[in-house]
Amino acid sequence: MVIKEGDTITAVATAPGDSGIGIVRISGPLAIKIAAQAFRSVTGVSLAGLPDRRMNYGYIYNPDNGEKIDEVLVTAMKAPHTYTRENVVEIYCHGGNVPVRKILEVIVGLGARIAQPGEFTKRAFLNGRIDLSQAEAVMDIIHSKSEMGLKTAVDQLEGGLSKRLDVIKDKLLSIMSRIEASIDFPEHDIEELTREALLQDTRVSIAMMDKLLSTSSTGKIVREGLKTAIIGKPNVGKSSLLNALLRENRAIVTEIPGTTRDVIEEYITLRGIPLRIMDTAGIRETDDFVESIGVEKTREYLQRADLVLLVLDAARPLSQEDRIILDIIRDKKIIVLINKTDLDIQLDIEEITERFSGRPVIHMSLTQEKGLGTLEETIYEMVFSDRVRSSDAVMVTSVRHEDCLKRAKVSLSDAQQAIISGIPVDLVSIDVKAALEALGEITGENITEEIVDRIFHDFCIGK
Fold first, then answer.
1. Domain range for residue 173?
2. In this predicted model, what pLDDT tens digit does every residue of 59-73 receive, in sequence order?
3. 55 to each of 41, 176, 229, how far by Cα in Å?
4. What are phi and psi of 48, to 5 degrees?
5. What whole-number distance in Å separates Cα of residue 100 and Cα of residue 93?
6. Cα–Cα distance, 283 to 359 (Å, whole number)
7. Do the beta carbons of residue 138 and residue 381 sit within 8 Å?
8. Measured over all CA atoms, what is the biggest interatomic distance in the chain, rounded to whole angstroms?
9. Choice between 296 and 309, residue whose per-residue pLDDT is larger
């Protein structure tokens, strides 16, 4: 993971397509020298001689033929006080594919190479400006689907998670130092005292890990969205529920059963929680080939759903179709929605309440917009379950981070059991060291080049 001397990268930092402004970014030891060959300031002064971190007005030319390409603003920033801790130049040109592409071609022609996905942020990590968890937070910010997701990612970028991990690592280093003292000074007979202190430190450290791990379910939802499937037999109000949650007519609503023939997927934000919500085809036996494909897709989506909104029709008793659905979702996290309660109720409400004992059952009338507020409150409570509130921005949002924490906890639990069992403390240090290494993987202190490459592979080019 070493950056080659003189290796200068460039990429377009703005999204493709027509826009007001396009940005071409350059980073590396030759960034200012390369840009200076293409940029001419209106004052006639070379870019290398212009003030650092100032906007400079002028034009980009192709030095090979003298062609004027675009009117631009250019900012040169000298290392180490930059995003990558290298020399960085940003060229602000008119948006649109043609001017941006032509400027990029000129910069590459002068000696820079096209950056790999996430290579600017990768260099920030390799050059010690940010740790690996902070680097991952950059993409979480870009892909955040709610204000809560953005807040969590920004906190991680500012080192919120890293600081929590530092406290645990300091405690583990304290354990290691106690063990070393016990080994180095056996004549003082301090091993018994050392064991008591080690037990206390391991208990505290495991408790801190547990607290972080307890946020992982919520963190995953905040980062990726709560996969929510709306399910029920045809014509119970599934599409009406989706439209009500979206506050728009996204799905077609008719009295004809089987109108929804495919899975409709939308993102909504509900009280700060991103919901990846799916309106599914009604599950029933059908001879319609297209509808049957939709029903099969519904079954597939149900397997991946975090939450199922089961919609029942209060104006009809439970049917065989309802009972098939109840059997399919019996092991899922469910909220039962009894819709059409404004009509003559034919559904056995008592049977439903007994069948779903301990699970939320909400009475609704989508035509009268009743019950939506209760549904939103119920989802919010289910997501946070009184353990993690939106005011606590530090969450474990990455599966990779969760796996590292779990491995660290297992190693430290093994160390704790070894202490209790009376195993020599020098052997205990092996498990403590393994816990430290697992935590170090989160921040990138102990990480392979292959894993680093895999993490940055999913970044956008130009970031």
1. 138-215+396-444
2. 999 999 999 999 999
3. 11, 52, 50
4. -65, -25
5. 7
6. 22
7. no
8. 87
9. 309
Instruction: Give the CA count within 13 Å in the CB-facing half-sphere of 358.
Output: 2
Q: Does residue 390 lie in a domain region? A: no
CA atoms within 13 A on the CB side of 261: 10
Clarify whether residues 199 and 287 are in a common domain: no
* Residue 202 included in any domain: yes
**At which of 93, 110, 129 does a domain end?**
129
Q: Is 61 exposed, middle or buried (0-12, 13-18, 19+ CB in 10 A)?
A: middle
**Count of alpha carbons within 13 Å of 323, Cβ hemisphere only?**
5
Q: How far apart are CA 292 and CA 87, in angstroms?
A: 59
Query: Hey, is 182 helix, strand or coil?
Result: helix
Residues 193 and 301 in one domain: no
> CA 127, CA 89: separation in Å to the nearest integer?
17
Domain CATH for 407: 1.20.120.430
| Stretch among 58-67, 254-263, 327-336 having the lowest mean pLDDT | 254-263
Is 461 part of a structural domain of the chain? no
More confident residue, 213 or 457: 213
Tens of pLDDT, residue by residue over 215-259, are 898 888 888 888 888 888 888 888 888 888 887 654 433 343 444
Most confidently modeled of 45-54, 269-278, 452-461?
45-54
DSSP H helix total and E strand total for the chain = 16, 13
Instruction: Assess whether 416 and 375 both reside in one domain.
Output: no
In what side-by-side order are the strands of the sheet with 21-27? 39-41, 56-62, 67-77, 88-94, 21-27, 9-12, 113-114
296: pLDDT strictly greater than 70: no
Tell me which of 96, 129, 162 is where a domain ends.
129
pLDDT of the residue at 386: 44
pLDDT at position 6 is 64
Shared domain check, 359 and 231: yes
80 confidence band (pLDDT: 50, 70, 90) = very high
Residue type, 330: R
Count of structural domains, the chain: 3
**Beta strand spans in 148-272 (E):** 226-231, 264-270
| Cross-strand pairs, 336 | 310, 361
Element at 105 (helix H, strand E): helix 97-109
Residue type, 88: V
Going by C-beta distance under 8 Å and a sequence separation of 6 or more, which residues neighbour residue 243? 249, 250, 251, 253
